[in-house]
Amino acid sequence: MSLNAYLIFSTLIFCLGLLGVIRRKNLLMLFFSTEIMLNSVNIAFAAISKFHGDLTGQMFAFFIIAIAASEVAVGLGLLILWYKKTGTINLDSMQKLKG
Amino acid sequence: MFEIVAFYLFAFLTITMFSITIFTNNALYALSTLAAGMIFISAFFFLLDAQFLGAVQIVVYTGAVMALYAFGMMFFDSLSTVEEHIKNPRLVFLLSGIIALLIVIIFVSPVIGENVQANLPVHEQWGNTQDVGVVLFTKYLIPFEIAAIMLLVAMIGGIILAGKKMDLSYSELSEDEIENLEKEEL
Fold first, then answer.
1. In order of start, what are the domains of chain A with their CATH numbers?
2. Which CATH class is domain B1-87?
3. Does the reported pTM lie above 0.90?
4. Is the dihedral of CA B104, B62, A64, B124 positive or negative?
5. Chain B residues touching A37 at Cβ < 8 A
6. Chain A, nearest residue to B38 by Cα
7. Do A59 and B135 count as a contact with CB atoms less than 8 A apart?
8. Which residues on adjacent β-strands are paired with residue B121?
9. Conformational region of residue B127, where left means phi above 0, alpha means psi within -120 to 50, and beta covers everything else
10. Where are the domains positioned within chain B?
11. CB-CB neighbors (< 8 A) of B132 in chain A
12. Residue A42: what pLDDT?
């Protein structure tokens, strides 16, 4: 397989995630879509790393995974707080953001 | 031959799984297909000789992150179907297409454009895990430590955010006390 095959696959997955981010109104589903986008970029990094014989891409993918994990911890905490406050995790309920 | 078959098989499976995640109206289906897609993505890391990343993908993503999501979903009304109304679906598809084109150009242009020199070359005789370990603890030691601190801060932040008002246990209260509490909140 060529590098382009992996990059095109990664772009397809990224667009799926992007479509989800644009389409979804439920905040939990929005988070899922973000995870998909992060994963697609990881594939692209790993592919470039392999086809250029360079480990930098894998390092960046590793740090992206770490950042995604911490994003989930903080984001889910905020979501639970928001759900306790308003009883919904719909994106439209955040339009006012008066607290 | 094996690589081509595996690539197309897993590409098909991953795209199917993530499509279900994007388009389903059931939160539980979304969660389980997302977990399956993550597992299938780890297959690509193994295909690309990044065994360490593949293992991390399974352990961290499918093990930890998905478990965290499953835990978080217990707080929400996860069995009810998610209803979403989009005012202009054509705009959404147009925007996605344009951005997709842009990303393909961005990804492909440096590959075609120049001859890239390897900054941290792969040592074939070492194997991937040892190679990653050596690079991680020499060239990327400070980012690694910062990532560790960031994970700790995020974990404590998540606990504090999610744990507010959790000192009160409803199961230990009597019916009257719970009713009084609910009246106070209203």
1. 3-87 (1.10.287.3510)
2. mainly alpha
3. no
4. negative
5. none
6. A39
7. yes
8. A54
9. left
10. 1-87, 126-186
11. 55, 58-59, 62
12. 92
